């Protein structure tokens, strides 16, 4: 028996049906960025004749190996520069066009894919009656090298341009899958959330989505000159002089480029935390820093749901990890955030690994998210959350670490079995509460539900929904710390 068929602008796609959900995987939303298209802006995909099989995920962007075996559920997908594919989950039966949720994965702009098992959209389609879209985009040196200053038609922010190309594809084609192109909510975590901050500032993204959910990541970019310096360092690793012919990049294999990027990263960071591949303020595609753009109204009319996890930094600093030097970690944080000295703020934290985890949580994740929320208040409603969910006794999830909320938001707790966690009714209830809030936001632009009051965020009360065993609203949580950090960062 054949699966569901959708008729797109480029040809027919045959997916599969699992229960009450139709699924299409591995849909090309752009031409393969290979050959002459490498390091350039994405181009439209080619049309095809007949019916294209859409039952399997497409290749993922080149990225470092999944050493823990949890990223792709223990499997090893094909890695390729030909990676610009998206996936769709939709209710098999629906009476009217449905809202669309468009997921942008995280992974420090160097890892991840829309095909990761924890991003399975079945519950969104079945329970939420929404269309769920996940995407791949170019990563690392292929997606975030500031190459436009070197000419030859090379681009910068290639990964962000991929995201826009996928959004344009959705606007043009999602009606064929039952979706409403006027009700698209972008949501993402970590680098995916930072991507959304950039999209809110990018003129080319205007009109492509109606709402945004940002999980554990606010505006994070590189200045143009710093991005150019990193790109020049990578060119040098490949033997291309600063004033040389950057078009020679076409002559190297993907493996050579990956190896050169690894060598360059080690030289420039010394192995400390840092992100060399990320959005860059290129003056064209991304004209100004996203936090500034949002403050000036670039996201006017876009409702925003934003928040962080209580213990973000404990994913990166843990007791069993090699002891990191506090001053070196602080210097890396200053470079990542583009701030001046943070020593005065650091005096309020211990120099232990716990202190390093806490300062990363507070400054890099929490304070920047609060700031972005404040910048949007004059232009659209904002809701703030904090995820406090933990699994007592678990070696990692006994804290609400970075990325811990994803399986709750997707209602995909089964993925936690890969981390040897046992799922209990309290965890399942928390997942349903968070999942339903995300669904409500997609349907009505407001995360409140019949079961859960969620006041809007404002400067007077700063209402924040705390997702935990006893989910509740807190007003200006940790207010003294917030005031101190804001004052010192000002």
TrEMBL record:
Looking at the record, the residues that make up the Carboxylesterase type B domain are 4-473
Query: EC no.?
Result: 3.1.1.-
- Which EC class is the enzyme in? hydrolase
Q: Which InterPro entries match?
A: AB_hydrolase_fold, CarbesteraseB, Carboxylesterase_B_AS, Carboxylesterase_B_CS, Type-B_Carboxylest/Lipase
Keyword rRNA-binding part of the UniProt annotation: no
Q: Does the keyword Hydrolase apply?
A: yes
Pfam families named among the record's database cross-references: COesterase
Keywords on this record?
Hydrolase
Q: By its UniProt entry, which PANTHER family does this protein fall under?
A: CARBOXYLESTERASE
Protein family (similarity comment): Belongs to the type-B carboxylesterase/lipase family.
Report the protein name in the record: Carboxylic ester hydrolase
What is the originating organism of this protein? Paenibacillus odorifer
- Lineage of the source organism? Bacteria, Bacillati, Bacillota, Bacilli, Bacillales
């Amino acid at each position: 028996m054949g699966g569901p068929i959708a008729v797109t602008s480029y040809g027919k796609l045959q997916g599969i049906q699992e229960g009450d959900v139709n699924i299409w995987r591995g849909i090309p939303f752009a031409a393969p960025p290979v050959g002459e298209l490498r390091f350039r802006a994405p181009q439209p995909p080619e049309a095809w004749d007949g019916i294209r099989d859409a039952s399997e995920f497409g290749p993922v962007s080149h990225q470092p190996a999944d050493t823990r075996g949890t990223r792709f559920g223990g499997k090893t997908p094909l890695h390729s520069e030909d990676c610009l594919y998206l996936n769709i989950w939709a209710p098999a039966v629906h009476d009217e066009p449905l809202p669309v949720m468009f997921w942008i994965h995280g992974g420090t702009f160097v890892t991840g894919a829309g095909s990761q098992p924890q991003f399975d959209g079945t519950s969104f389609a079945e329970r939420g009656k929404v269309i769920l879209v996940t995407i791949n985009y170019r990563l690392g040196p292929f997606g975030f090298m500031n190459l436009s200053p070197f000419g030859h038609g090379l681009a910068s922010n290639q990964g962000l341009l991929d995201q826009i190309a996928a959004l344009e594809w959705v606007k043009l084609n999602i009606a064929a899958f039952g979706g409403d192109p006027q009700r698209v909510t972008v949501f993402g975590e970590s680098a995916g959330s930072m991507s959304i901050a950039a999209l809110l500032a990018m003129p080319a993204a205007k009109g492509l989505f109606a709402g945004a959910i940002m999980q554990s990541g606010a505006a994070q970019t590189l200045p143009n000159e710093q991005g150019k310096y990193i790109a020049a360092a990578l060119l040098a690793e490949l033997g291309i002089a600063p004033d040389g012919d950057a078009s020679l990049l076409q002559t190297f294999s993907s493996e050579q480029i990956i190896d050169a990027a690894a060598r360059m990263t080690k030289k420039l960071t010394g192995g400390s935390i840092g992100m060399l591949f990320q959005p860059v303020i290129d003056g064209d595609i991304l004209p100004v820093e996203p936090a500034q753009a949002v403050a000036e109204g670039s996201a006017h009319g876009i409702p925003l749901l934003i928040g962080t996890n209580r213990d973000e930094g404990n994913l990166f600093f843990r007791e069993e990890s090699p002891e990191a030097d506090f001053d070196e970690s602080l210097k890396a944080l200053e470079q990542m955030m583009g701030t001046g000295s943070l020593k005065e703020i650091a005096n309020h934290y211990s120099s232990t690994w716990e202190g390093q985890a806490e300062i990363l949580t507070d400054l890099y994740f929490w304070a920047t998210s609060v700031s972005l929320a404040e910048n949007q208040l004059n232009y659209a409603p904002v809701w703030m959350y904090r995820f406090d969910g933990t699994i007592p006794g678990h070696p990692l999830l006994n804290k609400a670490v970075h990325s811990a909320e994803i399986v709750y938001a997707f209602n995909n707790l089964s993925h936690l079995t890969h981390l040897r966690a046992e799922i209990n009714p309290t965890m399942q209830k928390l997942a349903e509460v968070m999942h339903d809030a995300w669904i409500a936001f997609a349907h009505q632009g407001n995360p409140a539900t019949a079961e859960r009051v969620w006041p809007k965020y404002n400067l007077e009360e700063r209402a924040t929904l705390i997702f935990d065993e006893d989910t509740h609203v807190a007003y200006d949580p940790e207010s003294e710390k917030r005031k101190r950090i804001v004052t010192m960062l000002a």
